[in-house]
Amino acid sequence: MATVYWIRAPHHTDMFTEGYIGFSSRGTEKRFKQHKKDSKRDKNKHLPIYRAFDKYGDLLIVSTIVEGPDDYCLMIEQKLRPTEKIGWNINRGGEKASLGTKRSKESCEKQSKTLTGKKRPKEFGEIMSKVLKGKKKSPEHCAKMSAAQKGRKQPPELVAKIRAASEAGRKAYVEKLRSLPIWENPAANKDVWVLADKAHSIISETGVGAKLLGRMLGVHEYAIRVMCNKIKSGWNPNEDAAWLEFKTKYLQEATNAQST
What we know:
The protein is mostly helical and about 260 residues long.
């Protein structure tokens, strides 16, 4: 079973423009382990993904986006990385090739036609809808998308329908995120937010910033910066019922995981 995976830094939230999107026919975990091994080879040091391994190390997060047949996963990867040099990716998605290998124009066009002609599984639209909802694209990414799609015309009624559905989905997703505590956000690192009471105690006593606080708690400053700023603005996790409930649930899940 093939997978499409996302490798990112703790502060990354947009899979369309940040981190590394990859395809693996062996599964996400095996491919991630191979990335780790490859990052130690001198010949790979120039590649963005392996420079990221040097910079972030064990702080890097990997997650599976979808899994399924090869062609299906390649379609998803092509949607997430439609052009070259997005995030830590060198090549565009949807093509089987060695990392860092430059593909010819003819090869890219041939692969694109092959994927375009493949029949998509019926659940493809639902998965891509979940991936796309609420994702705000940078101007640079929009420009690349525009260049990639240049010359391809869609019926006006379809364009209008897509725009309406996208805007409605975006608003619903944003409203949902706004209603959640920050530690319940899908992009939040729960392993860090559960340390909020300890961070509050340290900041109250010493007034340290994110960099030193991260060292004291054993996490990277990028992962703890938002929480540090929130505490310094007056937030006390010990007086927040939602956070206390979150910590109780987190510890219970950890206990259950250890007992199984």
